[in-house]
Specification:
Length: 230
């Protein structure tokens, strides 16, 4: 059943207060969410098996670029090879509803992806990553993995969120016209799905990264909903 939920501001305080968990549960009470203990076990396993000692890097390719929420001490533009960003995850609670689901980004196999790597102090890594897990890993829609990044300052390893193809909300490789329609029509507690796309493209452009496929999607969505504000 479709539920009408009030607007929601995604902030660090909202995530720490588990308000995003409450939002998802209110939208779909039957959806199984990962527990805080499962989050901690997942994070501990990654940190125990990290390729490099010292501070921890986190790779952002979508909304984490323009709304990271975490405390970090450095950021770099980096490139991951073997994966590309694409709209492959249905959003029924954040940027859409059950009746009109939106689409959000995941890392899918093939190609390459340029994004932002955040360096988190080693002593704060577990706590800051828990914030990311509470935000991105509530339903297990992603598979966090260590990936090698190439940066101007040299290579590094960072945690990245690959799409979980076994997840019920995995959308697969959709035709472009279906992606455009879903993004243009969907609106959830976090706002219009189009805003998610517009913000991602704008911040990629600001960083000098650019993503021609996302720019093309932006232009097509803008024809339906109007140009981005500002």
């Amino acid at each position: 059943m479709s539920r009408s939920l009030p607007p929601f501001q995604l902030t660090r305080e909202a995530v720490l207060g588990d308000r995003i968990r409450a939002l998802v549960q209110a939208a779909d009470p039957e959806l199984r969410l990962l527990t805080p203990e499962e989050h901690r076990v997942s994070i501990a396993g990654l940190l125990q098996n990290r390729p490099d000692a010292g501070d921890v890097w986190l790779f952002a390719y979508g909304s984490l670029i323009w709304n990271p929420l975490i405390h970090f001490v450095e950021k770099r533009v980096g490139t991951v090879k073997g994966y590309h960003r694409c709209f492959c995850l249905w959003s029924r609670t954040g940027r859409g509803t059950a009746a009109k689901p939106g689409l959000t980004l995941g890392l899918e196999r093939g190609g390459s992806c340029r994004g932002v790597a955040y360096r988190i102090e080693e002593g704060q890594a577990a706590h800051e990553l828990e914030i990311v897990w509470r935000r991105e890993m509530l339903t297990g829609a992603y598979a966090p993995r260590w990936l090698k990044l190439e940066t101007a300052q040299g290579p590094l390893h960072a945690i990245a969120f690959l799409i979980n193809r076994a997840h019920t909300r995995y959308a697969g490789r959709l035709p472009e016209e279906k992606i455009v329609a879903a993004i243009a029509e969907a609106h959830g507690p976090l706002g219009p799905c189009a805003t998610y796309l517009f913000n991602t493209v704008a911040h990629l452009d600001e960083l000098g990264i650019g993503d021609e496929r996302l720019r093309r999607l932006r232009d097509q969505v803008a024809k339906k909903v109007g140009p981005p504000e500002g």
